[in-house]
Amino acid sequence: MVKVLERLGHTVEFPAGQTCCGQMHWNTGYQAEPLPLVGQFVSQFKGAEAVVVPSSSCVAMMRDHYPKMAAEIGDAKLIKDVEELLPRVFEFSEFLTKRLGLEDVGAYYPHRVTYHASCHGLRNLGLGDGPQRLLKAVRGIDLVEIQGLEQCCGFGGTFAIKNADVSSAMLAEKTTAVLNTGAEACTACDNSCLMHIQGALHRQRTGVRTVHLAEILASEEAVA
What we know:
The protein is an alpha/beta fold. It has two domains: 2-98, no CATH class; 112-218, Rossmann fold (3-Layer(aba) Sandwich), CATH 3.40.50. The chain is 50% helix and 9% strand. It is built from twelve helices and six strands. A four-stranded parallel beta sheet has the order 4-3-5-6, with helices on both faces. It has a two-stranded parallel ribbon with strand order 1-2. Helix 3 (35-45) packs across helix 5 and helix 10 (164-180) packs across helix 11 (191-203). The longest helix has 18 residues, at 56-73. The two termini are 24 Å apart.
C-alpha cells in the first residue's frame, strides 16, 4: 500500500504508537476493553490529511462504533475529535477511487485473478465496484468474476471459532467458487477474508494463492 501511495506522489507516515482498532474485543463482547483505543487512535492520527487503511473491517469498526465508544467514554473533546477525524479515514481502494478519483495506478500483474467482495467493504463501507475498476485497469491481468461475488466467506472473526461447522460450510462454497474460475490467485480488500480462504486453499493443496489488492496494485513491469 505504501509503495502505491508513494508512486502516486504522497508522503506516507506510519505512527509507531498505533494499535489494533479494537474490533476483536468489541465483537466478542469485551466492549469495555477497547474503549481506550479510541483515544489512542485519535492521538496518533489527528494531524493526518488522510488515514488510509488496508482493511475494510477496521474502517467499518471505526465508522460504525467509534462515535458510540467516544460517547460511552463521555469525553466531549474526544467526541469532537472522533467526529472531525473519521471523514478523513479511508479504506485503501476507497481512497484511490473516491478520494483521488483514480482507477489506473500504473500496475502490471500478468496473472488470472478473481475478486472476493468482503462483507464489511460491500455492506458497511459501500465500496461498490471500486476494487474491480482498479483491477480492470491493471495491465496484463486476466480478471475473472467469481460466482456468488456477494456471498460471505464464513470468517466473521470469532464467528469462525464459535460456529465452526457453519463457517466451514460457507468457506467450502467460497473456495469451490474460487477454483471454478480457474484463477491463479484470489484477491480482496480485507486480510481476514484472505487468511480464511487461503487456509482452505492451502489445506486442499490447490496451488491457488490469495493476494491483497494492494499487492497487485503495487506490482510493476520489470524494466530490462
